[in-house]
Amino acid sequence: MLKPADCTSMAQIRTEIDRLDEELVRLFAERAGYIDRAAEIKAGVDLPARIEARVEEVVQNVRRHADTYGLPPELVEKLWRRLIDWSIAREESKLGPDSLRKG
To answer: The Chorismate mutase domain covers which part of the protein (predicted)?
Structure first.
């Protein structure tokens, strides 16, 4: 593992980006495992997939993390909202659409 400043060629940069991409995919898969478990728990207590207060809490958390790590919070928010939508769709595939769930 090289730090960005230690890379002296595009080959090294590409190797490090590929390494990070694999790690990101591994982390997304781990996150998906928690999403699947959330769907199981929500089914047992009749909660919908989308809980708007939690969506906004997650967005605020990632905006804060983005700021901490020097990334534009607006960009990270856009990415995370897509991830959240994907996660909710994954939950709905197990729970059924929120629109069909009772109140």
So the answer is: 4-95
Residue 48 and residue 101 in contact, taking contact as beta carbons nearer than 8 Å: yes
Give the separation between CA 84 and CA 87, rounded to whole angstroms. 5
User: What are the pLDDT digits (tens) for 16-43?
Assistant: 999 999 999 999 999 999 999 999 999 9
Which residues, at least 6 apart from 103, have a Cβ–Cβ distance to it below 8 Å? none
Q: Is 92 annotated as a binding residue?
A: no
Pick the CATH number of 10-100 from 3.40.640.10, 3.30.1330.60, 1.10.150.120, 1.20.59.10: 1.20.59.10
Q: Is 52 annotated as a binding residue?
A: no
* 31 annotated as a binding-site residue: yes
What CA–CA distance (Å, rounded) separates 39 from 88?
Answer: 9
Indicate the pTM of the whole model. Answer: 0.86
